[in-house]
Specification:
- By secondary structure, the protein is of the alpha+beta class.
- The protein has two domains: about 100 residues; about 120 residues, no CATH class.
- The strands form two sheets. A five-stranded mixed sheet has the order 3-4-5-6-7. It has a two-stranded antiparallel ribbon with strand order 1-2.
- Helices cover about 45% and strands about 15% of the residues.
Length: about 220
C-alpha cells in the first residue's frame, strides 16, 4: 500500500500562490512511497525536496521564489511561504499519513464532507476551511474528528479555540453551513434552528480538556 491518498486532502488557505504547485510536486514524487514510511521520514523527504526546488533550507518567516511554479496569476505567483509549510502544510500531510495508517476510513469521510459542503459553499470557501485537521492559528476554522465524533471549530482573535459538537458524519456539513451562513449559496436551506438544536448546537467547548471531561461524563453515565 502506498501513500498517494494523503495528498487528496489538500485543504485550507495557502500561504502564497506557489504553495499549491509545490504540493502537486510532492504528490508527484512521493505518492508511491510505501505506507510504512514514518511521519519523521515523510517530513525529512519534504524538507529535502523543498531545498531541491528552492536551493535553500526551509525556514519560518521566509519566502522562496521558484520559477517553475510561477503561473503569473498574482503578486505572489511562484513564491513558497516557509511559515505556511512549517505550521500548516507539513503538519497536514503528517496528519493525513496518521489517518491513513490508523483510521483509513476517515479520509473517505473527509471527501464526503467536502462533497456535501458544495451544497452550501463555493469551492474557494471550502478550500478556506480546514477539513479533517485542527489549526491553532487565529482566524482558522473547520472541522476534525475526535473520539468518535466530528467537531466544528473556530480560533478567535484571542487565539482561544471554540469547539462545537460532537456531530455525526451526516450533520457536520450542516453545522459548518450554520456557522458560516453568511457564505450560503442561493439555495433553499434544508434545515431549521429547531433541527440544529437536535444536533448539539448548544454544546460549546474552549479546550480539548473540556471536550474530554464532557465525553468522560457521558461515558460514566452510560455505565
Amino acid at each position: 500500500m502506498v501513500i498517494n491518498e494523503i495528498f487528496l486532502n489538500r485543504r485550507m488557505q495557502w500561504g502564497y500562490r506557489g504553495d499549491p504547485h509545490f504540493w502537486d510536486y510532492l504528490r508527484k514524487n512521493l505518492s508511491n512511497e510505501d505506507i510504512s514510511i514514518s511521519e519523521e521520514e515523510l517530513e525529512a523527504k519534504i524538507f529535502a525536496m523543498f531545498e531541491k526546488v528552492t536551493g535553500e533550507v526551509l525556514e519560518e518567516d521566509e519566502r522562496y521564489y521558484v520559477k517553475e511554479f510561477d503561473d503569473r496569476e498574482g503578486m505572489s505567483a511562484g513564491y513558497l511561504c516557509g511559515s505556511w509549510w512549517l505550521e500548516n502544510g507539513i503538519p497536514q500531510l503528517k496528519s493525513n499519513l496518521r489517518y491513513l495508517k490508523e483510521e483509513p476510513d476517515i479520509l473517505l469521510e473527509i471527501y464526503d464532507i467536502k462533497n456535501n459542503l458544495q451544497r452550501y459553499f463555493v469551492a474557494k470557501e471550502i478550500d478556506n476551511m480546514i477539513i479533517g485537521g485542527f489549526c491553532k492559528q487565529r482566524g482558522c476554522a473547520g472541522c476534525f474528528k475526535y473520539r468518535g465524533g466530528w467537531y466544528y471549530y473556530y480560533v478567535k482573535d484571542n487565539e482561544i479555540p471554540l469547539f462545537n459538537g460532537p456531530y455525526d458524519i451526516k450533520n457536520i456539513p450542516v453545522a459548518l453551513a450554520k456557522h458560516f451562513k453568511k457564505h450560503f449559496k442561493k439555495i433553499e436551506i434544508e434545515f431549521t434552528d429547531a433541527h440544529m438544536e437536535k444536533v448539539y448546537a448548544s454544546l460549546y467547548f474552549e479546550s480539548f480538556e473540556a471536550i474530554n471531561e464532557y465525553l468522560d461524563n457521558i461515558k460514566d453515565e452510560d455505565k
